């Protein structure tokens, strides 16, 4: 391994540690303020309702790993044309996944929230705002995966750090808006979170399209790319289902039975 490669690895590692540190510090502060501002009931509603949508994203989590793997291989080969095809196919697959999540969320998921979760009637309207904002945020997140995979494949971890600085600023701004807001704070929090996630995703997309030629979408159908990507995804689904079940399923069980 060359000296330059070691230097890139060390730089990227430091950037990722800095990003994690910023996220942890801001998260420790904002979570306390959000809990105090929303109150225990509304904070719990946001967590459990958003968790229902998150549980539908296990396919997306598996596809994220698959997209990053196949895109990195083609970029490493230096075949930009092939990399563009992989990116385009991955984007098309994620569009299909987002539509599937939307269908499940507006049918099975909506029924589950209305009929099975323990939510007081006077907070049901606010819960529906949270649910719909969570669905839109999830769709943005799903269609964002190929762009994030492109940045990771090019080892531009400094981009994540800089954007995370902006994201931390927005999170603090959201907390400030909650403190001074005069409307329903749970609804306000859900809408602001949707705005932040959409804006951050837009930054990544603009950067990727500007810097990387392979991020220019061409609408194609290539079985030679789709088949191995989906095959790799299937093997990743089981672990992602278990992880989402542990992280989001516990909140739902607590809501229903306790």
Main sheet summary: none
Count of individual beta strands:
0
Summing up helix and strand content along with how strands pair, one would put the structural category as: mainly alpha
Mean pLDDT: 83
* Low-confidence runs: none
Shape: globular
Radius of gyration: 20 Å
The amount of helix comes to over 70%
- Total of DSSP H or I helical runs spanning 4+ residues: 9
SSE order, one letter for each helix or strand: HHHHHHHHH
Distance between the termini: 55 Å
What proportion of the residues form beta strands (DSSP E)?
Answer: under 5%
What oligomeric assembly is this protein in? Answer: single chain
The overall number of domains is 1
What key phrases describe this protein's structure?
258 residues; mainly alpha; 9 helices; 86% helix; 0% strand; globular
